[in-house]
Write a structure and sequence with these properties.
This protein is α+β, with helices and mostly antiparallel strands and 560 residues long. A hairpin with an 8-residue loop joins strand 2 and strand 3 (21-25). Helix 10 (497-507) crosses helix 11 (529-536). The relative contact order is 0.06.
């Protein structure tokens, strides 16, 4: 007879002897850790029950296994780049470096410097460095004594983030073979470490760059070498992709990401021939795939349901023929078929057609018509609205007009977003020609608008939440005028008192004697700014007054 247990064990019991013989052990707890062998058709799967299994995913057969026992929950795994070692991280912060064939711990391969759950592990491209992150938001670095020895030494740890680390990634410095180590955190910081000059108990931080203003980064990967410029691809919680210059860490391009129910959880590169590039991703419960180069076209992405109870990890096999995802106690294997993705993209249209579909009403809708009108009106502005001279209408407007057009369309970018949009166009041809761009055409403007505007607009409840945060928990949603003005001027992107007075005067239509709409923002002089602010705002302000009277939301919209 064959007997199975609740703990995932299968045993054979002969009728004559009644001697129990263990036949098989499977995972009986959550599977979080997976990785594929870089050379062979193997996948390593580890779970919270402490079981590690190696499978041949082509033959569908078990190759090897090791049970670490209860209390040794496996939380992360990574093969080195040649498949010689398998690093395993545990719930208690322990890191083991195993021989990838025998699954035995190598001599000196146990490290217990971390005291919290290991979240991620990564090897450098030359298999000299191993890095780990844990739930204490700390990065640990381990180094191999030499590429010909199996001895590994602890280098150091550093708590460079104050919120959870979402990604740890090794790269290669430009024009060299020197490894780079970066971590990306929910604190919006991208941290690079000086691993070559780090000494024992001293992991040195080389640079810290804040890469987001309001969104939270959720995953990153090196962008394939499609362009001459080297990029780091970052996905964020606002359904956007951002391409960061690999050296300066500055945002070079913002693109619309997948909008399949929830934002991306993790992205991985798919290695295909040079003329074909793709990335795969998981959201909260779906698996998807996107064709590169990224341009914001939603038809270049497809996704389908992967795990009803949530997807927690994704990896690709070396030739990218298969993808593997885990969720709950299940590991699923997916075959990649890029032809379906290309067919979907073709059905979505070419050129500007997919982007017109993103506009309310499509190409013939009111928004598209408004964009065209504002585009040509901006040309008139640059030639002075009041002039009687012959006007020249062309196919381009000055880059400086982009923020005005965006705001006229109902998208109110921050100053940082404005700078990102202008720089995206300004330096779009710099790598190829060495020259900057000072004008933008209508096609580029439409793409810029679709890629940068908020995916789901600005819900009114977010305005209320923001106002409540400013007012404080014990304020009953009411805030003193002086405090509100001080916060608006000194927190976030600073606004001077005259600027704030001008903005409020425009919102409240306090245009004085101005008859020309072009002059309405110039009616408040610096010396009268304080008096104007006191005149237009009551001493105590609540959310209803601010949203209805100042921002001008209609009562019906507020009720929603």
């Amino acid at each position: 007879a064959v007997v199975s247990t609740q703990s995932g064990h299968y045993a054979g019991v002969p009728a004559k002897t009644n001697q129990v013989k263990k036949l098989l052990q499977e995972h009986d707890d959550a599977v979080k850790a997976i990785d594929t062998h870089p050379v062979s058709n193997y996948i390593a799967v580890g779970s919270y029950c402490g079981l590690l299994k190696i499978w041949d995913y082509i033959e569908k057969s078990e190759v090897n296994s090791r049970a670490f026992g209860l209390g040794n929950e496996i939380t992360a795994m990574s093969y080195d780049k040649v498949g010689e070692f398998l690093a395993v991280g545990f719930y208690d912060g322990t890191i083991l470096i195993l021989d990838s064939t025998t699954l035995e711990t190598i001599s000196g391969g146990e490290f217990s410097h971390a005291k919290a759950l290991i979240t991620q592990l990564a090897f450098s491209h030359d298999s000299i460095f191993l890095a780990a992150t844990d739930l204490d938001d700390t990065t640990t670095l381990i180094k191999r004594a030499s590429d010909s020895e199996n001895e590994w030494n602890y280098i150091g740890r550093n708590k460079a983030h104050y919120k959870s680390i979402v990604n740890i990634i090794f790269g290669i410095a430009l024009d060299s073979n020197v490894p780079r180590l970066l971590t990306l955190g929910m604190d919006r910081n991208l941290v690079e470490y000086d691993i070559l000059n780090s000494t024992e108990d001293n992991l040195i931080v080389m640079s810290t760059d804040k890469i987001e203003q309001s969104a939270t980064p959720v995953s990153c990967a090196w962008y394939p070498p499609i362009n001459k410029e080297h990029f780091l691809l970052v996905a964020n919680s606002e359904y956007k992709y951002k391409l960061l210059n690999a050296t300066t860490k500055r945002c070079r391009k913002t693109l619309l990401g997948p909008t399949h129910g929830s934002h991306i959880q993790k992205i991985v590169n798919l290695a295909y021939p040079e003329d074909k590039h793709y990335i795969a991703f998981i959201t909260e419960d779906k698996i998807g795939m996107t064709t590169l180069a990224l341009d914001g076209n939603p038809h270049n992405t497809t996704a389908l349901l992967a795990h009803c109870d949530g997807a927690s990890n994704i990896v690709a096999c070396p030739n990218s023929r298969f993808l593997f995802t885990v969720g709950g106690k299940v590991c699923r294997m997916w075959e990649v078929n890029p032809d379906v993705l290309h067919a979907t993209a073709a059905l979505g249209g070419s050129g500007l057609e997919p982007f017109y579909q993103l506009l309310e009403g499509g190409k013939e809708g009111p928004l598209a018509k408004e964009m065209e009108e504002y585009f040509y009106y901006s040309q008139m502005r640059s030639q002075s609205v009041a002039t009687t001279k012959h006007r020249k209408v062309g196919q381009h407007v000055a880059l400086e007009e982009v923020p005005n057009i965006m705001r006229a369309l109902g998208f109110y970018p921050t100053e940082l977003q404005v700078q990102d949009m202008i720089n995206e166009v300004k330096f779009s041809q710099y790598v190829d020609t060495g020259k900057t761009v000072s004008e933008i055409d209508l096609e580029t403007l439409i793409k810029l608008y679709c890629n940068h505007r908020p995916v789901f607009g600005l819900p009114l409840y977010q305005v209320y939440d923001a106002f409540s945060t400013l007012a404080g928990a014990d304020s009953d949603g009411r805030i003193d005028r002086g405090l509100l003005l001080s916060l608006l001027q000194n927190k976030g992107e600073h606004i001077s008192e005259p600027e704030l007075a001008e903005y409020l005067a425009s919102l409240l239509e306090l245009h004085g004697s101005a008859t020309n709409k072009e002059d309405k923002m110039a009616v408040v002089v610096a010396s009268e700014a304080g008096t104007t602010l006191e005149r237009v705002l009551p001493e105590i302000i609540d959310a209803d007054m601010f949203t209805g009277h100042v921002l001008g939301f209609m009562p019906a919209a507020i009720a929603e």
